[in-house]
Design brief:
- The structure is a homodimer.
- Chain A is α/β, with parallel strands linked by helices.
- The first copy, chain A, has a single domain (6-13, 60-104, 138-330), classed as UDP-N-acetylmuramoyl-L-alanine:D-glutamate ligase, CATH 3.40.1190.20.
- In chain A, 38% of the residues lie in helices and 21% in strands.
- Chain A is built from 14 helices and 13 strands.
- In chain A, strands 5-1-8-9-10-11-12-13 form an eight-stranded mixed sheet. Chain A has a five-stranded mixed sheet with strand order 3-7-6-2-4.
- In chain A, helix 3 (62-72) crosses helix 11 and helix 11 runs antiparallel to helix 12.
- The longest helix of chain A is centred in the last third of the chain and has 15 residues, at 295-309.
- The first copy, chain A, starts with 5 loop residues before the first strand and ends with a helix.
- At the A-B interface, strand 4 and helix 4 of A face strand 4 and helix 4 of B.
- Strand 4 of chain A pairs antiparallel with strand 4 (56-60) of chain B, so a sheet runs across the interface.
């Protein structure tokens, strides 16, 4: 345990991903909506796993992926989320700690196993998520270490936290501490179906609590129930201090007060699996923001990190992001 | 459980791989010999895991990788090996069964956990293996189902089986049943250090028990303690019915009686991680052999499978080998 200043802390569901290739017919047969995240219970998780092909296991969880990315850029980062004392819980903890991430929530000695997400990757590199929250679903305000949030520049939370019952109280606690300490709260809308489930609360959050908002095109359109990206942009503009909207290979748009940046996607040599693209964009952006870089550079760092993670299976970077971003960072630091 | 005829059954250590990128300095610091397999105990496994970077978990085990490859070509395959009733054991079993592989050894209810192999992948795509055998180390003759071996064309065993105490008895049992049923025994020398540990026994096996022998250049040179590949080739020639010697990007040499084939490696677009290259060569070769294809085509199928598995992290194919080999197979079947 440490007590030095941190750049970014993530609060989210602790998940190990199980990734497998599947064809489109598999999704249709299983009633899965391509590109979305569905919550599943134990019995559905078992059935679906039996139907899936061979998999690879990689630590995941949206906010945790972002935190791994921040650490990959060389940022000082921490994570809050719940695991069980089982093999997948040990994998999840190792994969964060080995990056130097502070992760001090002790694994539960009983209750459901460590959460996992069954991910079907179709030949178009799109990913379809089926999340069994497991131990992650027990996250509550007691897991949030007040002193950790107070010494952290930006606390980042995932919209998925609205699904487990007590996690939104963890959000409130973190938000109150962060703002009382002059710190920022960043938030991701996570998934358009998640926005559907929690639209009114997310609009309230965007207007009153969130300093830095991340959303992709589908999510921001869902938030304001509009078919037009530009319409959604006009709605959200001015509510949060900073809004970063990602649009896959069309790049991203960043707005802050009168400032607007339209940033190209980083060309990817190979697109294998888009799992984690949004999470890693947030990683680059938040790392840049925590280092006081221009918003345009923050967006560039987001694009570089997203481009790395879509070039292989899994939502955690395999290469050093600091290395990949060296030219970009050398030009500004 | 099934009782139909099988093409290939593998007997080996049931292992889940934990793969992580590392630099050459890491290997030097930890006293690891690049490219080799070292056996480690629980405490060393824990220490080394703590020192490693973030990993991905993929089912592994040399013979099990081969069997997954045979199934990927559309072959009927089975596997014999021991797991524990833990999360990694469930992953190992799922990854084989989801390919249609018969795997009926029940997981142990107590004893050591499912085995794992900590794999450091250096920037040259070379892999260095550190195996904690765990439950796999308890493999013995009782695990070998006599009727399964009797209905299988080729039973394939890994040289690594000589390390756990009772596994060589499992080999003897399988060899006796296979030969009494007019079936073939295939064997891989596995690793040059493994050959060092068991040289005399391996020479006896090669001369008296093995019908199909797989070895890479280092292993066959180690077996006959010679610095010359050609010298080793002359030594081994004539002892086994078929010998397939792999030489990385130099391709492979296959000898059987007077027949000799020199087969090119399949060009790889990308070499990310060479873990499993030899195992997948054996998969293509054995699939072809079980289908009665010419030895040259068997070697080509081996090269195709090896080329797929070195293009990504992990020793199990991510693409359909039947699809990749379609042109080659269409030309001969």
């Amino acid at each position: 345990m440490s007590d030095g200043p941190l750049d970014v802390v993530g609060i989210g569901n602790a998940i190990v991903d199980v990734l497998s290739h599947a064809d489109d017919e598999f999704l249709v047969r299983e009633g899965l909506v391509k590109g979305s995240m569905a919550l599943i219970d134990t019995s559905r998780a078992e059935t679906l796993y039996q139907l899936m092909g061979p998999g690879i296991e990689v630590s995941g969880g949206s906010a945790a992926n972002t935190i791994a990315g921040v650490a990959g850029f060389g940022g000082k980062a921490g994570f809050v989320g719940r695991t069980r004392d089982d093999q997948l819980g040990a994998v999840f903890a190792h994969d964060l700690r080995s990056l130097g991430v502070e992760f001090d929530v002790p694994p539960a000695a009983d209750g459901p196993p460590t959460g996992r997400c069954l991910i079907l990757v179709t030949p178009d590199a799109q990913r379809t998520l089926n999340t069994y929250l497991g131990a992650g679903g027990d996250l509550g305000p007691d897991d949030v270490d007040a002193s950790m949030v107070a010494r952290t520049q930006i606390t980042y939370l995932e919209g998925y936290l609205w699904d487990p019952p007590a996690a939104k109280e963890a959000f409130r606690k973190a938000s109150d501490i962060a703002h009382a300490s002059g710190r920022k709260i960043a938030f991701s809308l996570s998934d358009s179906f998640c926005v559907d489930r929690w639209r009114e609360e997310f609009i309230q959050l965007a207007e009153h609590e969130i300093d830095v908002l991340f959303a992709n095109e589908d999510e921001i359109k869902s938030l304001y129930q509009t078919a037009s990206f530009d319409d959604a942009l006009q709605h959200v503009r001015g509510h949060c201090e900073i809004v970063a909207l990602t649009r896959s290979d069309k790049g991203s748009v960043v707005v802050s007060g009168d400032e607007v940046h339209v940033i190209d996607a980083e060309p990817a040599k190979l697109v294998v699996d888009t799992t984690g693209a949004g999470d890693l964009y947030a990683a680059g952006f938040l790392f840049g923001l925590s280092r006081g870089l221009d918003l345009y550079v923050c967006g560039q760092l987001g694009s570089i990190a997203a481009s790395e993670v879509i070039s292989h299976m899994g939502a955690r970077p395999e290469m050093s992001l600091a290395e990949l971003a060296r030219d970009t960072l050398n030009a500004v630091i």
